[in-house]
């Protein structure tokens, strides 16, 4: 939309090379250094003969509008389906011994406090934050009443399957674990996106992370370490290289993938084409291709089973990384030439 708006400015105002910025302090747009208010309209250009486009734009401008929003019907610009590639099956192997030990290799500097620190206070906008505390007493009922959005619970780096997920936003906030005094409790919190509206002036209602009042058998848990997980391309590539550049390949029994972990594999592409990642047989997690984050998969929830992988991310030799949060049924993935839905 921004590109379209800039193009229309050149139509409405000539080819003057002006400036257009956002004044975040005063919550306004600035055009050529002066406050500017959008008065936008919408046009379906595909319904108007191209010879009349200039006339319609002039009429819109005469009405007092200074910006245009358009809908692009890609089915008209690309009337035939694009060619997709079936790259087939890719075998994966786990990096490290468990999910937690691997993610700590790419964690950001931790902050310590009596209570957990949320994403915003850590200046960690998205992804995951790992919360760690040492238990002074044992217990069974872990309660996290203010978690956002999903938490994955580990005791001594062992995932508390099958009830290891705690869910915020009016979902399940208590699970049963088996913990002893001196055990290390870790909760990996995943944010699932942020709302783009709120009922107050500031978006503080959509804070992410593990908040206060975490209890074990009703006793508050204190002294937490809060650590953001770095998911930049450089960090993700470093995990892959630790396995790919190893002198010997690691053994990878099929049963190993039943646990959460970070998994890596490679495939060759003789022709570079769009493709689809098929998450069938895997649990819940995140896909990276050549270090680029291509989104979350959760086949049980759906509706999409596949993730679209655009051609620009495909190389002759490709590295696949999965951050698998709950465990899988197999040690391979497939790249197919069609989308799959529930």
Automatic annotation (TrEMBL):
GO BP annotations, alphabetical order: carbohydrate metabolic process
Domain of life, per lineage: Eukaryota
Domain Beta-galactosidase galactose-binding: 261-316
Domain Glycoside hydrolase 35 catalytic positions: 28-94
Domain Beta-galactosidase 1-like first all-beta: 116-226
Keywords: Glycosidase, Hydrolase, Signal
InterPro entries to which the protein is assigned, alphabetical: BetaGal1-like_ABD1, BetaGal_gal-bd, Galactose-bd-like_sf, GH, Gly_Hdrlase_35_cat, Glycoside_Hdrlase_35
Span of the signal peptide: 1-17
Classification via Pfam families: BetaGal_ABD_1, BetaGal_gal-bd, Glyco_hydro_35
Gene Ontology terms, MF aspect: hydrolase activity, hydrolyzing O-glycosyl compounds
Similarity field: Belongs to the glycosyl hydrolase 35 family.
Protein name per its UniProtKB record: Glycoside hydrolase 35 catalytic domain-containing protein
Source organism per UniProt: Acrobeloides nanus
């Amino acid at each position: 939309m921004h590109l379209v708006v800039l193009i229309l400015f050149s139509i409405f105002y000539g080819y003057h090379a002006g400036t257009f910025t956002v004044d975040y302090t005063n919550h306004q747009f600035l055009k050529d250094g002066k406050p500017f208010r959008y008065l936008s309209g919408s046009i379906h250009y595909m319904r108007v003969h191209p010879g009349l486009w200039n006339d319609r734009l002039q009429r819109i401008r005469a009405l007092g509008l200074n910006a245009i929003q358009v809908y692009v019907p890609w089915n008209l610009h690309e009337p035939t389906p694009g060619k997709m590639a079936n790259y087939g099956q890719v075998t994966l192997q786990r990096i490290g011994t468990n999910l937690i030990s691997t993610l700590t290799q790419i964690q950001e500097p931790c902050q310590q406090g009596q209570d957990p620190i949320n994403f915003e206070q850590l200046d960690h906008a998205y992804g995951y934050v790992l919360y760690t505390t040492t238990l002074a007493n044992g217990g069974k009922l872990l309660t996290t009443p203010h978690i956002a959005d999903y938490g994955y619970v580990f005791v001594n780096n062992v995932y508390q399957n099958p009830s290891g997920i705690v869910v915020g936003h009016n979902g399940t906030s208590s699970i049963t674990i088996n913990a002893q005094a001196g055990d290390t409790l870790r909760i990996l919190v995943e944010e699932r996106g942020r709302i783009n509206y709120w009922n107050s002036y500031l978006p503080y209602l959509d804070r992410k992370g593990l908040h206060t009042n975490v209890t074990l058998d009703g006793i508050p848990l204190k002294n937490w370490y809060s650590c953001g997980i770095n998911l930049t391309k450089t960090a993700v590539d470093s995990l892959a290289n630790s396995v790919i550049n190893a002198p010997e390949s690691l053994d990878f029994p099929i049963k190993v993938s039943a646990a959460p972990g970070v998994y890596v594999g490679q495939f060759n592409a003789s022709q570079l084409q769009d493709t689809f990642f098929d998450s069938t047989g895997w649990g819940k997690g995140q896909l990276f291709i050549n270090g680029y984050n291509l989104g979350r998969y959760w086949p049980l929830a759906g509706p999409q089973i596949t993730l679209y992988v655009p051609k620009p991310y495909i190389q002759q030799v490709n590295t696949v990384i999965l951050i698998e949060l709950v465990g899988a049924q197999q040690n391979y993935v497939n790249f197919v030439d069609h989308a799959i839905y529930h």
